[in-house]
Amino acid sequence: MAKMSLEELRKLRGEMQGEIKRREADGKSIQIIVGMGTCGIAAGAKDTLDSFISVLKDKGIADTAIIRQTGCMGMCANEPTVEVIVPDMPKVIYGNVTAEVAKEVVEKHILGKTLLDKQILDRPSIDIINK
Question: pTM for this one?
Answer without folding.
Answer: 0.77
